[in-house]
Design goal:
Blueprint (H helix, E strand, L loop, with lengths): L6 E5 L5 E5 L11 H11 L3 E2 L4 H6 L8 E2 H10 L5 E2 L4 H12 L2 E7 L2 E7 L14 E5 H6 L1
Parallel strand pairs: 3-5
Antiparallel strand pairs: 1-2, 4-8, 6-7, 6-8
Length: 145
């Protein structure tokens, strides 16, 4: 069976199908075929366990001042610019780390501005809500606020 699987096709960052040739595959390379594929995709950062908050800032949609946490999560499933996630909580972890180090702020919108407003403080991933009502903002927007 190992010799039957030599190629993996996935959507590349240029929005075209990218074919990865695994070469001669055998059972000594990994305990499972899926494990072999995941490890190879990890090496090329096509699949990741964690996200750096700066990745969100670098790929910030120019039309948004506030980016809903739901839209952030959905971007990882819709856009080839973002890596595929192995950990479902990776987005929450990235937001929490971004809040702690000042890369991002986690906010809600109210008639009085941003409430709640979490920026450069201890913040747990468990406190991040993935919804249309909660947002992240950049460091510049947080400091201006």
């Amino acid at each position: 069976m190992w010799n039957a699987y030599k190629f993996v096709a996935l959507l590349g960052k240029d929005n075209k199908i990218r074919v990865i040739d695994f070469g001669q595959v055998n059972s000594t390379q990994s305990t499972t075929l899926v494990g072999l594929i995941i490890n190879r995709l990890r090496q090329s950062n096509d699949v990741v366990d964690t996200i750096n908050p700066r990745l969100l800032v670098r790929n910030w949609p120019p039309a948004f001042i506030e980016w809903s946490t739901k839209a952030v999560r959905d971007a990882f499933f819709a856009s080839p610019l973002f890596p595929r996630l192995l950990n479902g909580d990776a987005v929450k972890d990235a937001i929490a780390r971004g809040v702690k180090d000042g890369t991002l702020a986690y906010v809600g919108k109210s008639s009085n501005g941003y409430e709640p407003f979490h920026y450069q403080c201890t913040f747990n991933a468990a406190d991040v809500e993935i919804s249309e009502d909660m947002f992240i903002i950049t460091q510049e927007t947080a400091e201006a606020y």
